Amino acid sequence: MSEQSEGRRVERNNTRVLIFSALLTLIAFLIILIILTRRAQTGILINIILILLTVLAVALLVLLIRFFKAVSHIDENAKQLSQGKLNISDILESKTRGLESLTSAVNEMKRNLLSFIESTKINVIVLSDAVDNITKSLDMSYKGNEHIASSMATVAEKAQQQLKIVKDTLAGIEEVANRANNITTTLARIEEFVENTVMITQEGSQHVDKFNEQMDVISTNLSETAAFIETLNTHLNEIDQVNGLIINITEQLKLLSLNSAVEAARAGEAGRGFVVVSQEMNKLSSATRESIGHIGKLLSNILSSNAKVSESIASCVESFNMSKDIFSSVKDTFYTINKNTYILNDDMKKVYEESRQINESTKDISDQGHILHDASMEISSITQDVAAITEEELAENEEINNQALSLQNMLSRIENLLMRYRTSVVPVEQPSPKRLKIAVFSPLDHPFWESVRQGVMYAQTELKTKNVDVEFLGYAKDFGQLNIDLKDRIDKGYDGLILPGFTGGVEEDVMRAQRKNIAVMSFNCDFAEGVERLAYFGPDIYTSGKLAAETISRAVDFEGDIAVLRGPLDTSINSIRRDAVHEVISKNRKMRIATEIEALTDSLQTYKNAKELLTKFHALKGIVILTGNVSGVARAIEEMGLIGKVKIVCYDYDDEIIKLIRKGIVYAAIGQDPFGQGHDPIIYMYNYLVTGEKPASVTNTRIEIIDARSLSELD
Questions:
Q1: DSSP string for 48-81
Q2: Are 279 and 257 in contact (CB under 8 A)?
């Protein structure tokens, strides 16, 4: 507050000096005139008096010219303000010496009007969007309520039908529940039967195993019997061979008997004993032969029977072996049946479990069906209430819709009222015959750019009925994405592109856009030399640089050391501002630029650099910041107790900068109309695309100075 009081005191003193000087000159002129008329006796005295009068008249004339020139300058600005032309720069106090208070008042009045109008524009954007959304919602709600109202009778009827269906369904569910219960009971019996079958098949398998063992024993015995009969046949054949031997022996005995009879006949009486022997031998031979013949028949019969027995046993063995194979197959089949019975048993258990769960679910569904039945009855009763409420809502929506229309009309009147104040360029009346596409590219890493975005939004509002799409693309961090998006919009054939001139690496893209007849405009900062564009809209960088130097000069009473914090000089905005500051300061012999450093984007590093700067140059009286990161420098000044001793002049302002101005850390901030930088290029671009009339190659935004004096009215 002491800084503001001091400023007002200086203004009052300057005004008083100017008035007192004019009065003293007039009084002196009158006194000399009186003396001249009373004492003019010699020509020399008269000449001296005339010379003095002439000098006084010239001095008075110079003072009056300065005074009336200042008044005329203020009057011209006041006339423009009265005509609603607010898009003008502040009146410089250097041009209105002695009338600083009036100058500050006019500037403050203009600034307040601009602030009010821009705030109103922002509120119009918000309200317009809200009204549009409300209107759309009301339309949808109205249509929806009409549809609901027309459908409520049908809903009520359907609710009754639903209630009947629910009753029928509930009865069907109960029947299904009973059937499911019966199925569960039947499955339980089937499961018991299957379990018994499993037990029986298991016992049958065991019996089959035992029978198979007995079959193996019988097969073995048959094989042994066949072998025994074979052996018996062999023995009988051997006996038959012995019979043949015995028959041979009997033949020999018979022959011997015959020989004995012959010899006995020869011997006569002496051979009678041999005759008897011969006869006995003959009898024995005959008897033996007969016995052997009988044995032979028996053996033949036995062999024949054995052959039949062997053949029968062989047939039996063959049949038994075939039966054994068949029985083995039957055994396998029986085991398969047994295995499948186990599987069937498991499946039946699963089916029984599923059936049990279905039965339980059916019971739950039945319970839910009762709940649904109750709910359907409640819905049926509520439907009538909803129908009545819907009718009331239709009437209320109609009233709200009327109010929304009134609000829309009010916004239209506000917009028409705002049109009376020429704070920016206005769009042409006629809409575009074809759908236009305009893209605006902007950083969003500082409050300044947020104001730019608000200007873009207001331009969108103004052009919403002009058959044009305005797309805003903001970048808080990934600025490399800007180049990618720019190429994409060029490929898509947009009609207009607007981007800051300091954007790097866009030269080839800008030329490619122009080859495709896409209009390109720069704002905030112009492109580098050699890059063609339709127009540039932004601050007069050189003039704003001189203004910053003049402002810091007044802040330090036109003497002392100052420092310059700037951005990289390869960006034109930094180099132009820096050169302008050097030019102004170099003309004042009592001031010099003690140092010049490059400010970094990192606020912490800027704070450290500022502390080093203030420590090294302890006699420093002012700092001009040509780029951002004012907070880092302000923090260093505050911590080192240099508030009021080291003045800061910076560019652009936001709530934080205003707080620093109020605290006396920042002496002044130079505004560059960020709202207009976002709004005006879009309107210029639209007007060009519709009418074909090119805008001025360079259009500068207004410049204003925000300091403690201009903020005093808000305290």
A1: HHHHHHHHHHHHHHHHHHHHHHHHHHHHHHHHHH
A2: yes
Q: Which residue has the tokens 């089959």?
A: 208
Measure the CA–CA gap between 43 and 290, rounded to whole angstroms. Answer: 223
Residue 304 backbone dihedrals phi, psi, to 5 degrees? -65, -45
Instruction: Find residue 662's DSSP bridge partners.
Output: none
Separation between Cα atoms, residue 576 and residue 553, nearest integer Å: 19
Cβ proximity of 652 and 672 under 8 Å: yes
* CATH number of the domain located at residue range(s) 426-539+678-696 in this protein: 3.40.50.2300
How far is the first Cα of the chain from the last one, in angstroms, to the nearest whole number?
10
669: left (phi over 0), alpha (psi -120 to 50) or beta: beta
Is 585 strand, coil or helix?
helix
Residues 665-702: b if buried by 16+ CB within 10 A, e if exposed: bbbbbbbbbbbbbbbbbbbbbbbbbbeeeebeeebbbb
Q: Which helix (H) or strand (E) holds 499?
A: strand 496-500
C-alpha–C-alpha distance, residues 307 and 363, integer Å: 80
Cα–Cα dist 446/55, whole Å? 57
Q: In what order do the strands lie in the sheet with 647-651?
A: 591-598, 560-566, 620-625, 647-651, 666-671, 704-707
Torsion of Cα atoms, 158 then 163 then 169 then 172, to 10° = -140
The DSSP letter of residue 271 is G
**Can you name the residues that pair with 669 across neighbouring β-strands?**
650, 706
* Residue 494 exposed, middle or buried by CB count within 10 Å (0-12, 13-18, 19+): buried
One DSSP character per residue, 227-274 reads: HHHHHHHHHHHHHHHHHHHHHHHHHHHHHHHHHHHHHHHHHGGGGHHH
CA 522: distance to chain centroid? 32
- 308 three-class SS: helix
Q: Both tokens of residue 516?
A: 């495709």
For residue 83, the model assigns a pLDDT of 54
Cα distances (Å, whole numbers) of residue 322 to 328, 332, 333: 10, 15, 16
Q: Are 15 and 46 in contact (CB under 8 A)?
A: no
Q: What is the DSSP string of 92-119?
A: PGGGSTT-HHHHHHHHHHHHHHHHHHHH
- Architecture category of domain 143-387 in CATH: Orthogonal Bundle (1.10)
Using one digit for the tens of pLDDT, what is the confidence trace for 42-99? 556 666 666 666 766 666 666 666 666 666 666 666 665 555 555 556 666 556 655 5
d(CA 474, CA 72): 44
Q: Give which of 475, 446, 440 is closest to 459, Cα–Cα.
A: 440
Six-digit token string for 132: 């549009």
pLDDT tens figures, 113-138: 656 555 565 656 655 666 566 666 65
Sequence-distant (6+) residues with CB within 8 A of 430 are: 690
Tell me yes or no: is domain 540-671 CATH 3.40.50.2300: yes
pLDDT tens, residue by residue, 589-613? 899 999 998 876 677 888 998 999 9
In angstroms, rounded to a whole number, what is the distance separating the alpha carbons of residues 85 and 483?
37
